[in-house]
Amino acid sequence: MIDIDSKNKKIEERFVCVDCISDHPNCQYRTIEKINQQWNHTKKQQDRVLSELKTKRQEKQEKLNQQIAIMRKNYNQQLNEISEKLITEFSLPPTSKPIEINKIKQTSLQQLSNEELLSNINQILQNDKENMVQDSKIEYLKSKDSVFQKEIQSRLEHLKQHEQLDIQESINILQEIQNDNQIQGIVQLQQQIQESTKKNQVQLIYKEDLDELINSSKYIYCQKSLLNETIQKFQEHLAKIKTFESKMQQSLDNLVFTSIQKQTNEYKNKFEKDFNQLMKFCEIEKLEKNFETLQQHYEKSQIERNQYLESIEKDYKLKIQKQNNIIEELENILKNTEDKLKNKVEEENLLNERLKEENSKNEKFQQKLNDQQIKHDKEIKSLNEQINKIRTELNSRLQFKVLDIKPKILTDDYWIKLFFILQEKSKKTIKEFQLIFQGTRDGLNNNSFWNKCNGKCNLLMIFQSQSGYIFGGYSPCRWQNNTSYVQDDTLSSFIFSQTHDSIYPLILDKKKYAIYCNSGYGPCFGDGHDICINSDFKDGYSNIGNSYKLDKYDNKKSTHIFGQEKSNITECEIFEIKFI
User: Where is the chain membrane-spanning (predicted)?
Assistant: First the structure.
């Protein structure tokens, strides 16, 4: 195995056997076969990249050679045309023989004979005609030279434009920029016309217009490249000025730098003034881009607005359709209701007619019933008066007896109420109340409680807590020491609270947990327990609602019965009840 990833490692330290790999867990070892595959893969990639590079270079060289050949052909062709034009058009025509001005003799007219004078006059006229012809030729040559000069200047200007365009195309080839020449189709059309003019002379009419169009297009594209380059150079130069100005501001302590900064500011202002129009043009380009962006955002917002309006229109149509469906359903319901109502009215009319007939038949019977009812009401009233009189007498006697045996802790009203509940629950008449345990007399502890109550039944227990809460319980079950839970099949056991004026009856499903008997505790009611008095009558708790029914709005905590968390009993009275 070989380690080729680690650096600064000797060659002999890179080789390890398979068993020694675990000694170097941080190194990544590879087999010779895998390394060989990796090297072969890398070499193939390098060969492929070199091959692609070579192909691209050959293609670029071929394109440049073709472009240079085209440039050379165009230049030679245009220069030859200009040279031929110069040879044919710019050379002067052969001059006529010199005018023999000196033929006229320089003598006085008086000395000349008539023949000589006539000959001289004819000679002068001839010379004057020749001078006029010569002047017209000179004017023609001047105008011709001016036209020819403009033509040569135009050809040289076109040659310059071709040169700039060809150079730009050559630079694009070197920089591998795709040449998107918009006049390529026009150039090809021109070449087709030049070839076809040899056969069809009619198309010669369009050749000059096409030449002018192509030259103008080439000029515009050349000027476009120059303008882009000028803008780039202008922005770079302006950035250099600002950079230099910021550097000068850091060296204001030196007077020389201060002077240079002043001159730099003057140059900057002059530069911005001179190129003010170009700066505006650059801003126009930015504004155009911003305008295009805004236009795109506007179009996008318009599309979103149209989509939103379409969705709203669609929802509106759906809602209208739903409303129409609802209206249609309501109309059907209204129609059905009207039909049913009509049927009901008809039925009621029939019933009313029958009732009238029945009423007419039962009037006599009703009269008899009314008479009997009056008679019975009088009898019932008389009986109720007698019963109330007897009940009043019994209550006065019974109340006197009940109050005679009232526990000290309970109020008179609540004791009377509790007395009748005991008779109602047991379904028996109370014969006797016997006080068998009083906490302040016998002692508030479990031993005193069991000594007085063990083996007894039908016990009513009344407690008063330290908070002044008065409560208690009754059960017909026998309080037998250490028998655990005792079942009440009569369901006459209950817990009461004078403080809340409430009775909590035993739940049917919990009747086997009516009371709990354990010598380590005092009296306990229910499972869990609903009331639990510990051995010292101070400690204890209440979970009322476990076995004795609690109203859903009452509080289940110990404070509901005791008035505090623990029992803290200050007085306890236990009565044994005997029934008839």
Answer: none
